[in-house]
Amino acid sequence: xxxxxxxxxxxxxxxxxxxxxxxxxxxxxxxxxxxxxxxxxxxxxxxxxxxxxxxxxxxxxxxxxxxxxxxxxxxxxxxxxxxxxxxxxxxxxxxxxxxxxxxxxxxxxxxxxxxxxxxxxxxxxxxxxxxxxxxxxxxxxxxxxxxxxxxxxxxxxxxxxxxxxxxxxxxxxxxxxxxxxxxxxxxxxxxxxxxxxxxxxxxxxxxx
Length: 208
Known about the structure:
Layout: H1 8-24, H2 31-38, H3 52-70, H4 74-79, H5 86-101, H6 104-116, H7 121-148, H8 157-180, H9 186-206
Helix pairs in contact: 1-2, 1-3, 1-6, 3-6, 3-7, 5-9, 6-7, 7-8, 8-9
């Protein structure tokens, strides 16, 4: 059934859920808690969502959409005749990602994803597909293209993509942990740039 248009209270419920789910987990937050924060009667909740689960699904799908806007599609690669230098291309991708994560709401949604992956099949599939598999597949296509352009040595693009992307997944996890603790994630951001720098230099050294 179609959901009603975005009313102010519906948006307030979403905002409250993002905030509270990211702090206390889905199970640690009741519909009553959410309605108290928003300042509406508990019965009014159901004018906006069928239940807490639908609210979580909405948040996770929002995360997926916003994440996808940053992860370019494979079609984009076909339209780029020349990807430029590997370091510039990879740094550009990292900067787009860091801009996205600079949004506190995005970090909260990412934290919900990590918290709920063991309980929610939707959270699990988004984490696997969007954060791990899709960017890695994209990296594989990028390296394939760099190899075809003679810019890097012809290693297995799949291995290159894993060696490139998986450390970034681990660093993202660290970033979220520091952020949750209220610590400065700047050192992790620096590690991300160092990783890209190191990786690009290795690829170039090998191509001589």
